[in-house]
């Protein structure tokens, strides 16, 4: 029975999980609340990548995985996919967004105004090391502007379309469950527009950045100008079975429009995601801008970037190489050794097909 | 009649984890896959509580097929006790309440990564193979949309060319596992990274084989009694791994696919890859009464 005695699989995996969790200690409601309050941008990032807007669940996923982001996103996605669809909200339009920050690099001023909003863009990146010496770092109070900026603004591309600078995208009148849903149907190419935008919205931030940056650096045809970048809150309007329309709350969203000159027109690239994540939407909009007519197999081709920025799939596949591969390896070794033996004794090798 | 009698109490998850709509989609795609043997059917492929690339495709099929009376066996590279096989088996048992087994003869549903058991499967058994890459054309055409078109046109010229080039360069076909095979004379499929040793087991088999790639979102199938022919030139015969003469150093069983275990003295020892076959052989040697099924290979040869 020696063979049986070595079967330690179940116990080993149980103990390895315990070892991982032991380091993080108790997961308490306080810890969840603290993560949620202290790291809104991290929460936003994983909610976007998971396509699930729930700050508490996102904070829980972070706590449970010790901040292993790919694992946290997978936890949320696996939860999300089992949840029933109670209702599909009405489409969110750009001019209806409750806007916190909205900047354009294309024009000095834009209808509705440039709204700087919250950002670290102009911060000097210096560590507040005094905190480690025991001092509390308290943020300086914000002085409200004399005049509040308008909460709702049109998009810059709408103005450009009015002025004949770009052709607006054909509007899509699909609503509710008729909207193609990339989480409920396979992604095939050429991809449906909805699938492309959904895939970019849930793509892994680092992956989108890597390929978007490649396009920006020169592996893409089009150089992006940030038409507008917006951080906002979107009203989730649903219809009660009795027929009443009501707001189920607001979710944070980011969106970017980037444009590039193409002949006598501007070409528009667009991306939006849940949560506030500026790097992701600028990079994703750049990929969208470059995808039309991109050569097969290039980094800006839709199939290439949508497949390879899927974080749950790419990270899962990458770590699967840790699994035993000794059958496949043995099979390759066999072919290799045989080929080597044939080389040593060439008279034995059969003639290749004549 | 009241709302209460029409509904059931809230539960944290559906039976078998996947919800009804996911299972319905997979059932439909499995039927399509059986109807067109070897042809890859795209499906949504939901996330499951396991990492992509770790058997999520096979798992979704198993979770769709399983019921509380089905006996489930899970193997990874031939072994029931491999850590990931243990994890998948525990998950299926937990969410479906299905009994588990390690004995191939007792299993109704076998989920496997990269091996087909050595005992012949019956027509009442279903084999679910985990597939990392469903596209046999990937080495010659990485773009999925172009590859799809090539399958539609049965355009396998580049596939043949690749095999020919290997013979010219190395004196033999260098494909290790995942040997591309023609199913029912129409679609070339990858049998998943099973060794070449296992591919002939699929040809005209009594059992149903479902192959599922979760990350790549494709299901394909080999229905019972379907031709599965490895792509070979008529003058260069198909060659399985040279394991016919190897003996398992633990169980003494001989003529089956082996794992090679490097030894400190520079030599190699071998142990049978189908771990439960090895266990049963040891039990029988020790005097226990153990049922050994008929094997596909006899004396290290596949009867033709």
What share of the residues of chain A lie within helices?
40-55%
Main sheet: strand order of chain B: 1-8-7-4-3-2
**Count, helices of chain A:** 13
Summed up, the helix count of chain B is 8
Question: What profile does the largest beta sheet of chain B have?
Answer: 6 strands, mixed
Q: Would you report the number of β strands of chain B?
A: 11
H/E element string of chain B?
HHEHEHEEHHEEHEEEEEH
What number of domains of chain B? 2
Overall pLDDT of chain B, averaged? 95
Helix-strand makeup class of chain A: alpha+beta
Order of helices and strands of chain A: HHHHHHEHHHEEEHHHH
Oligomer state equals: heterodimer
Provide the low-confidence segments of chain B as ranges. none
Estimated structural class of chain B: alpha/beta
Question: Which chain pair has the greatest contact?
Answer: A-B, 63 and 81 residues
Give structural notes:
The complex is a heterodimer of chains A (354) and B (304). Chain A has 2 domains: 14-80; 94-122 and 149-169 and 178-314, no CATH class. Chain A has helices at 2-5, 9-22, 29-38, 40-50, 55-65, 69-80, 156-162, 193-201, 205-219, 278-291, 302-308, 311-320, 326-344; strands spanning 98-103, 225-239, 245-262, 265-274. Chain A is of the alpha+beta class and 354 residues long. Chain B has a 6-stranded mixed β-sheet, with helices on one face. Chain B folds into 2 domains: 20-134 and 142-230, Rossmann fold; 242-304, no CATH class. Chain B has helices at residues 3-6, 20-35, 56-65, 83-96, 144-152, 157-170, 199-202, 275-285; strands spanning 41-42, 72-76, 109-113, 126-130, 181-183, 187-189, 208-213, 218-222, 228-230, 258-262, 268-272. In chain B, strand 2 (72-76), helix 4 (83-96) and strand 3 (109-113) form a beta-alpha-beta unit. At the A-B interface, helix 1, helix 2, helix 6, helix 12 and helix 13 of A face helix 2, helix 4, helix 5, helix 6 and strand 10 of B.
């Amino acid at each position: 029975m020696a063979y049986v005695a070595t079967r330690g699989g179940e116990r080993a995996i149980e103990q390895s999980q315990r070892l991982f969790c032991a380091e993080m200690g108790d997961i308490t409601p306080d810890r969840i609340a603290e993560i949620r309050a202290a790291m809104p941008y991290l929460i936003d990032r994983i909610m976007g990548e998971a396509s699930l807007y729930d700050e508490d669940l996102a904070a829980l996923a972070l706590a449970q995985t010790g901040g292993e982001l790919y694992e946290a996103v997978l936890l949320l996605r696996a939860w999300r996919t089992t949840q029933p669809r109670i209702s599909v909200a009405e489409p969110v339009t750009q001019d209806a967004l409750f806007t916190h920050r909205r900047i354009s690099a294309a024009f000095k001023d834009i209808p509705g105004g440039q709204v700087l909003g919250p950002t670290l863009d102009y911060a000097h990146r210096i560590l507040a090391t005094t905190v480690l010496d025991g001092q509390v770092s308290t943020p300086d109070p914000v002085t409200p502007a004399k005049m509040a900026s308008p909460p709702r603004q049109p998009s810059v591309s709408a103005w450009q379309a009015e002025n004949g600078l770009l052709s607006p995208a054909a509007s899509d009148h699909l609503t509710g469950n008729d909207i193609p849903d990339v989480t409920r149907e396979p992604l095939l190419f050429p991809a449906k527009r909805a699938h492309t935008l959904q895939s970019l919205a849930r793509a892994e931030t680092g992956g989108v950045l890597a390929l978007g940056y490649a396009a920006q650096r020169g592996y893409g045809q089009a150089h992006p100008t940030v038409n507008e970048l917006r951080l906002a809150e979107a009203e989730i309007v649903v219809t009660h079975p009795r027929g009443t329309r009501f707001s189920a709350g607001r979710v944070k969203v980011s969106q970017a429009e980037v444009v590039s000159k193409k002949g006598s027109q501007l070409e528009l690239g667009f991306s939006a995601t849940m949560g506030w994540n500026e790097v992701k939407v600028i990079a994703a909009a750049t990929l969208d801008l470059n995808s039309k007519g991109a050569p097969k197999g290039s980094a800006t081709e839709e199939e290439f970037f949508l497949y390879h920025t899927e974080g749950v799939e790419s990270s899962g596949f990458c770590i699967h190489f840790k699994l035993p591969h000794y059958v496949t390896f043995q099979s390759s070794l066999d072919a290799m050794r045989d080929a080597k033996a044939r080389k040593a004794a060439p008279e034995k090798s059969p003639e290749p097909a004549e | 009649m009241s709302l209460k009698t029409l509904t059931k109490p809230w539960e944290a998850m559906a039976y078998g984890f996947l919800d009804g709509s996911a299972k319905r989609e997979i059932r439909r795609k499995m039927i399509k896959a059986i109807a067109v043997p070897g042809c890859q059917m795209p499906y949504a492929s939901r996330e499951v509580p396991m990492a992509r690339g770790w058997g999520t495709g096979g798992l979704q099929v198993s979770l769709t097929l399983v019921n509380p009376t089905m006996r489930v066996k899970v193997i990874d590279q031939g072994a029931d006790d491999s850590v990931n096989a243990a994890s998948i088996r525990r998950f299926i048992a937990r969410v479906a309440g299905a009994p588990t087994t390690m004995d191939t003869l007792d299993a109704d549903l076998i989920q496997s990564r990269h091996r087909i058991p050595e005992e012949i499967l019956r027509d009442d058994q279903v084999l679910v193979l985990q597939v990392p890459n469903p596209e046999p054309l990937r080495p010659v055409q990485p773009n999925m949309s172009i590859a799809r078109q090539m399958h539609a046109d049965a355009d396998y010229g580049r596939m043949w060319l690749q095999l020919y080039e290997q013979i010219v360069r190395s004196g033999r076909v260098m494909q290790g596992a995942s040997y591309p095979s023609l199913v029912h004379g129409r679609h070339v499929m990858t049998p998943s990274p099973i060794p070449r040793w296992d591919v002939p087991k699929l040809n005209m088999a009594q059992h149903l084989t479902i192959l599922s790639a979760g990350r790549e979102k494709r299901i394909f199938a080999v229905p019972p009694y379907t031709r599965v022919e490895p792509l070979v030139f008529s003058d260069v015969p198909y060659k399985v791994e040279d394991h016919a003469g190897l003996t398992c150093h633990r169980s003494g069983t001989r003529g089956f696919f082996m794992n090679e275990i490097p030894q400190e003295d520079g030599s190699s020892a071998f142990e049978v890859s189908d771990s439960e076959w090895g266990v049963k052989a040891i039990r029988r040697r020790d005097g226990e009464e153990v049922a050994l099924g008929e094997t596909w290979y006899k004396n290290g040869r596949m009867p033709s």
